[in-house]
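Tokens in:
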């Protein structure tokens, strides 16, 4: 074999290999399957990027609270309440109707008992009561307890007599929970998530008897100036 044959064959072999590689790269480019690399991320196929993921809209990434939150503005400060429509759907719907209509604006916390609760949502400062919507059926057997900071519906001796008045428990009042049909208790439908300091401030108010009838009535009016849904 000629001494120059080996180098020539080696060069031919290298040329063939280069041609094969160039063909493979060209074919891959035409198929549209090339991946690009961001400077700060991993490989990704540009044609398959989900814009919702980029914007952080993936439902699995969401941690938003779906329960409605109501703000009760008072002359003592604001109270924010998270409602629980899952456990008390009828009661929450009823409360929301009063909120939406502006019913609570101008009413007062008319009954305050330290170490127990504060009650409002039905009386005006002069001692008169506002006309309400029809009473609703009780939903006290819903697993929610009258614990500190929970909001519940006030009622008469008739279990199905709740209308607009509500109370906020300032201590644990489990004796107000549902026991049985003879002792149905009071419907809890939400909880205070902000403003318990305001609740306790109202709780400490000096009280007297209003019009010789209504006991535990604050000496100084504690007005509800506005109630609305927090956005």
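Residues out:
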């Amino acid at each position: 074999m000629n001494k120059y044959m080996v180098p020539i064959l080696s060069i031919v072999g290298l040329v063939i290999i280069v041609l094969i590689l160039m063909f493979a790269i060209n074919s891959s480019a035409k198929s549209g399957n090339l991946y690009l690399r961001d400077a700060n991320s991993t490989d990704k196929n540009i044609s398959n990027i989900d814009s919702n993921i980029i914007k952080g809209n993936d439902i699995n990434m969401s941690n938003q609270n779906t329960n409605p939150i109501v703000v009760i503005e008072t002359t003592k400060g604001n109270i924010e309440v998270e409602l629980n429509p899952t456990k008390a759907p009828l009661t929450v719907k009823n409360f929301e109707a009063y909120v939406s209509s502006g019913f609570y604006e101008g009413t007062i916390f008319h009954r305050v008992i330290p170490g127990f609760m504060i009650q409002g949502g039905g009386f005006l400062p002069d001692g008169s009561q506002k006309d309400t919507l029809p009473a609703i059926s009780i939903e006290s057997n819903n697993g929610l307890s009258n614990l500190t900071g929970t909001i519940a519906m006030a009622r008469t001796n008739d279990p199905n007599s709740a209308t607009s008045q509500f109370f906020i428990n300032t201590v644990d009042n489990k004796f107000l929970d549902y026991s049985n049909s003879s002792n149905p208790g009071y419907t809890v439908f939400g909880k205070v998530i902000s403003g318990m300091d305001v609740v306790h401030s109202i709780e400490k108010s000096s009280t007297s008897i209003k019009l010789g009838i209504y006991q535990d009535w604050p000496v100084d009016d504690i007005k509800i100036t506005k109630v609305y849904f927090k956005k």
